[in-house]
Amino acid sequence: MAKLSAGRRRKLPASAFAYPRSRKYPIDTKARARSALARAASNRNAGSYAHVARAVRRRYGNAVASVGPRRGTVARPGYRRGRSRGRGR
After folding, report:
1. I need a surface site. Which of 2, 58, 71, 78 has the fewest CB within 10 A?
2. Selection from 72, 70, 77 nearest residue 33 by Cα
3. Cα(18)–Cα(27) distance, integer angstroms
4. pLDDT, tens only, 57-67
């Protein structure tokens, strides 16, 4: 992912951010959307994950995987919910 300079960030439209008014969490590319989800999932930003996840899902649908199995908007490929099946346990 290329670095986002201040000039390029200023040129992005408001729709390229999860929070358009404050211009937080740019989601103009899939890589930046994944990064925004990871940043919002940190403990410091506990309340913003759901908002960012909704914005990413609105823009990219299921194309961007979530950060974790519990909090995610979609499950990672190969991830099954519930207990394991067929492993002899």
Report:
1. 78
2. 72
3. 7
4. 999 888 887 65
Establish if 81 belongs to a structural domain.
Answer: no
Domain of residue 30: give its range. 12-60
Question: In the beta sheet, which residues pair with residue 24?
Answer: 19
Instruction: Determine what percent of the chain falls in helix, strand and coil, rounding each to the nearest 5.
Output: 45, 5, 50
Q: How many Å from the N-terminal Cα to the C-terminal Cα in the chain?
A: 42
Q: Count how many domains the chain has.
A: 1
pLDDT band for position 12 (cuts 50, 70, 90): very high
Chain centroid to CA 28? 11
